[in-house]
Amino acid sequence: MAEKSTIRAEAARLLGRFEQAGAQVIEADILQPAGTLLDLYGEDIRARAYVTNDPVMGEAMLRPDFTVPVVQMHMTGGAEPARYAYMGEVFRAQEEAAHRAPEYFQVGYELFERDNPPAADAEVFSVIYQSLEGIGLRAATGDMGLLLSAVRGLKTTDRRKAALLRHIWRPRRFRALLDRFAGRAPQPTGREELLARADPMRDDAPIIGLRSRAEIARRVETLRADAEATPISGLEVDLLDDLLALRETSPNALDHLRDLAVDLPSIGPAVDRMEARLDALSACGVDVNTLDFEGSYGRTSMEYYDGFVFGFYAESRPDLPPVASGGRYDALTRVLGKGREIPAIGAVVRPELMLEVAQIEQGGKKT
Question: Which of 115, 161, 253, 275 is the most buried (most CB within 10 A)?
């Protein structure tokens, strides 16, 4: 691992590049009010946040990420369009990966732009891509918008769609729900017996827990309605599985998605956006013919991503996290905007990983 002063110098160099690309350099407080912010992060980040109590701020946390505080700042009165750059430490506990540092640098680039989201996607990707040239990284891309649109278009109840959408970032839970809603897996243990009773809420039944008798009765009725719902069709499940398993170069993936959209029309607008994004990436000098696309990419990252997602990886070091990653988070601006919203996308680079991978690359060339 490089010395902290070396990492800071590399971070400053990256920040300078982002500033030259038109970004305004900003800072975010290290200590952030927790409140509802923890709910905006993915399950993984929430579990690894350093949370404390401040006598003035109340529940607070060490900054686990820059995007949320940057969006908060912008939505209080930022200009349109706006480009921001920043650098600094973030803090995440590493209980399952003790070899990784709980404190590390991020350098980021965020773009708030309403008129041409595909061009904004291409701009952020290409700015990061150019900053990483020469160290032999593989780029992976995906689109959470495709998955979200596919689930919203299923011919099933709103409740089932909401459950699937809530767990789309938890692949195992999502799979279990999808199989159950399609009739391919049994109901949870004890549920069928409960629903088979003529009166699950007998007056003499003891109340255990905090729910009232009325709340329990409403829950039973919800479960009964769900059990009576028509299963999701096998065709729709197969189409979803096809989308999730897709792994191709971007042009080939686009062709395949066009075919899928014939039977899964809800993804049509997202496929159109992908085509426009690939054209914009090509205009920025990115060779999209060799750019990988993965249908499941982004499902284990930040839960506020809802569109284009990407990451850059060292193939020689599969044990390392992405050297850089980013994505579109339009919905986050709606949550934090208090009535305002604006399409937005951002990305971060980890300079210490850049230095580590560059050192590996140089060592390989010497041998």
Answer: 253
